């Protein structure tokens, strides 16, 4: 655009701006950018200060006791003289409930996000998504109270039937969806419409019978299980999965929506069905965002304190066998919350510093997971923008 100077003013097209006004605009711009940079830097500095102060009190423990006992021993007797500070069973407990909650929350969350994005009508989605997101607004102590007072006695007295019904209710819709999608994909190669419909019906009956048999067989196995205590890893994993569900559904659904109509319409224009479009076009395009949603959900479960403190049983040992989710466990966050009150009386001792070592371990894992999820989101944006 042509520009010219007239007296102490500059002309740009139809606008004329005086030099004084330009200086004010430049100063305002610099001030605004500086203010935003200061706010952003302050947040980064807070994170660095948290890292510094946690690491400052964590390092003395490793100087006193080394790394071997902390990472390889299961003996946790911090009040003894001399104390034992083996955190292997506690780290295993954290990993165990995180994996357990992810196994429940990830399939449910992704299936729910697909339904919200590409299956349910828009009017239904407007009501369903806020209801799911309301789970994130419930205080964690309310979840813990429910897990300890209501769910744990139910699990202890009627554990087998509860797991059987939970399996039928949760796995049933998922298997029905899988049967429909699989039959649709396998019959899509048939050109003749009549043969294609008959093949789809036949496959629906075949896969449906297999799915019903699988549901019944697993349900019978679960109904025969006796649970000795309701405060166990399964209780915590189920409650944590519901706490992580809003994060996974919300982020994954936003990622699926970001794929855009042009990819969906292009797939339909090439003759693909809705199932083929979801499986072969939408999910691959949104895979990075879905993975980021899963990582954020896992971080939500790993960092939770109140529920695991109230409902995990707080037993510092590795279950026997190692995959026994019906046994009590103890986690890093619950140990920090439970022992900090007593350890505060012996400030400067190994018992005090070992809690900061656990906090540093959680911080490092959360920070690494956050970096990975950020990288994934940036990669998805580049893919969707065609860069």
UniProtKB/TrEMBL annotation:
Any one annotated GO CC term: plasma membrane
InterPro entries assigned to the protein according to its UniProt record, in alphabetical order: MetI-like, MetI-like_sf, Phosphate_Transport_Permease
UniProt cross-references to PROSITE patterns, sorted A to Z: ABC_TM1
Keywords in alphabetical order: Cell membrane, Membrane, Phosphate transport, Transmembrane, Transmembrane helix, Transport
Signal peptide: none
Subcellular location: Cell membrane
Biological process, per Gene Ontology: phosphate ion transport; transmembrane transport
Annotated transmembrane regions: 30-55, 85-110, 131-153, 165-189, 201-227, 233-252, 282-302, 352-372
Domain ABC transmembrane type-1: 91-373
Topology of the protein relative to the lipid bilayer: Multi-pass membrane protein
Name of the protein this chain belongs to: Phosphate ABC transporter, inner membrane subunit PstC
